[in-house]
Amino acid sequence: MTDEDLNGGADGPSFFGFVRLVGGAGIDDAKVTAELKGGALVTATDLLGLYKIPGFGKDVNPDDVQISCAKDGYKQANVFRHPHTAGDMKDPIEVDCFLQKQ
Amino acid sequence: MIRRCLFRGSLALLLAAPAAGSALAQSAPAPAGSVAPAAAAPYAMSLGDMMNTLIQPRHAKLGLAGKAQNWTLAQYALVEIRQSFAGIVKAQPKFRGLPVGELVNAALGQPMDAVDAAIKAQDPQKFAAAYAQLTAGCNACHAAADHPYVVIKAPEVSEFPNQDFNPHR
What is the ipTM for the molecules in this complex? Predict the structure, then answer.
């Protein structure tokens, strides 16, 4: 029931969001990459277009994590990072990624 | 009706209980050394509680009404589902860090519109397809919220012996 569940018990920032067609519905099985200096985490969206990336280490600054998305036949249009007001690092950060057909 | 009456009766009793308890406490002080009774706390419904009591029965009623081609009742059930979700999103905006409103929208927005269109068209085949889409949306949402084992399906029989789902004019 708590945000800790999405965080996977880690102390650092966690991310989630939707991959959507511009002005449209969620896109399933899209590749989502969370890039950070020195590495990247890759996951895929579910049937709703939702992805979840559990917590990074506590030393990771959320602003240093860049989220991008991709899927064959589409190109990335933009990424929207929802305002993250909570000071609590355990509050997951929502970043939506929009794709458009090529 | 009977169930609803009983529920209302229980609720009234629950609401009355704290007041009765405090009156008793004022008129009869507890003996020295006894432990004071815990104050009644309001019960906060979990998302699971709300799904079980507000959504699941209405999902079933929607399916039964549509199967019986009782389009008025089906429309009513669909409106009740939408209203219930609106209330649930207000009561619990987040579940496990995920925005409930966005999940509901992503999973059920388009299927509910499809069910609505099928009801308005009074088309049983379209309704069956849209209802299956809606049910799949429920399950996709459960999976997204880490509850993939809660699998919803179309009702095969009515679990409401006191309700007639056939159309009456």
Answer: 0.80
